[in-house]
Amino acid sequence: MKELPKSIIERRELNLRQGIKSSLSNIRSIVALVYTLYRINNRKAMVEYSESMNGNQIKLNSNLETSIKTFLGIDDLGTINSNPLFKSQMEALQVGIELIFKLGKVEFIDDSLAFSIERTKGYRYKKKIRFGTNIQIIDIFLAGYEADLPMFLNKWLHNQESEKTEIDEGVKRLLTIFSEETQFKIRYNNQEISFQQEGIYKEFAEGNTVIGRDEHENVGPFRVFKSYVKEGLHPYIAESGDELIAKNTTAEALEYYQIVSNALDLIPKRTEITAFVPLEIEQEDESISEESTKSEMRQIIYYGCPGSGKSRKVKEITMKIDSSYVFRTTFHPDTDYASFVGCYKPTGNRSHKTEYTKQQLIDILTNMKNAGLSYPLHRFAVEYYFALEPLSRAEKEEIILTAGFTNAYLVEMDKSIAAGKHIKYIDKENTISYEFSPQIFTNAYIKAWKDTSKFVYLIIEEINRGNCAQIFGDLFQLLDRDKETGKSEYPIKADKDLVAYIEKELGVGHEGIKNEELCLPPNLIIYATMNTSDQSLFPMDSAFKRRWDWEYVPINYNKDIDSGKFIIKIDDTEYLWVDFLEIVNEKIYDVTNSEDKQMGNFFIKKNVEAKEFVNKVMFYLWNEVCKEEYGTQRNFFRRGKEGNIEFKFTDLFGADQTAILNEFMTGLGVKPNRA
Questions:
Q1: pLDDT in tens, 231-255
Q2: Could you list the residue range(s) of the whole structural domain that residue 207 is in?
């Protein structure tokens, strides 16, 4: 069956990771092992190269051991398993292998893990490589040295020069060519410069040396690039103290500099250069793609005019995330701290309605014991007396033993059960107790601390429709995040009720409530939406605003997306929604001198007929834009073949509704859809 080629895939912009501090050394050994894995896996596009070891580290996948020994002619895999591919954290590998040399994509086998998860814990997780075409280029070059290949690879795996200079120099030059598109960042004398190696070469060509040290700390790809240069792998750049110098200024080198510039002219331009690219994008395949993604941006307010797709954007970011890791709320004028965080509330006797399995009771007691609580068994028996009382002696004994206590505690359990029954529920039928009732922030906070391997998303719709100063209270201080760790820079003291509840959930002394303080974990992502047309409802102060990253969601007039195909049907005449939208938004801007009152492409969410168009679109235009302009030249609520007759919103509910609407469209210059 003959078909046209598939359309170009619109790929996500690369996370340039220009702010990370991950180091990567022994570049030779990394390149050698990546190539070796490509060869022993029969040149396939992907290899799962590692498996778990000792619970928190990784080693070579057992399925590959025989092949790698045969290919390299070795018996001991010690050098292999000590390679940075197994020892270095994910982000450093991504910078070196993906961003600089572009040999392939390094990913976790478990795609629910965030790429930043290895940054703080020291754990290493099973990884895979999806190879790119650059590895094939190296393979083509090395095909001419097949007999020397084991020697070369073994030398490089030990981070040593091989005995074949031509092989070494050839691979070095290839790696350098692969790296020429890479973007770097350096800060010096209060300047922040983004550059490529071309920028270094241009200074060399003029006889200059180049500052080779960030005045704060080398970060991102530049940090790894410095290792590459220091290890003598770059044919044209060397280090001298804090400076980068030309290895030579021969005619050949100068010609290479020009060839690099020519090549960069042939590469499609990126639309945006960002230093930090969201965790937003790392739980999808990015599960914790802390893309993350816009990766280091953990608090983002998506803002734009009504219907621009702010909520839709957030939904797309989180649509592939397990719903138990996504918490949603909508702010409104009555939202307050208690409804956002929690408070003490009266509750009925819930004990008679709650049922627990024996395994659940075992888990609860075990967790209380492991949390370091004083007298965990007594606390457990008092709290859950109603579930324990009906159990047989053998069942109680099983719970105690499984949780790590001896059966000597059985008597103590029975005493505590009786105490719980007496103290908490003297009147079984009528008891009303006061308990802390957690709300959405607290629930998301606890979820994030309980499972730091995955991102937890707290979504706040219409954030500016609530009084943020009142709702967040002192929590706003937690929004100051350390750019590297992602944790709150300034923990805050929690009130006693909140402390007691969180300690019950996380355990006394847990990092999430250590010293009775709250501290946002790095995996708690907060996204909010804000309708710019409502920005005056509850103005945000600058202290609150500056703690967020802001991302504008523009109106999209593209006819190839869903909203571009929406139809306005008025009697027998059809108009494309985006045709109307583009014209009417210009009129709105002319009247208001602002984009805030414009309508977004998702202001309507489907095809509409006259009645819905009037009640939704025309109602908005009249009340938000044209009502106060009635009787002026700026008012575009006009009908007639020449578009010169003013009308009011109420006029649309007479017998000539469709005639008015069609004349309104004609007056604006919106042409019927002839498709």
A1: 999 999 999 988 999 988 788 899 9
A2: 184-265
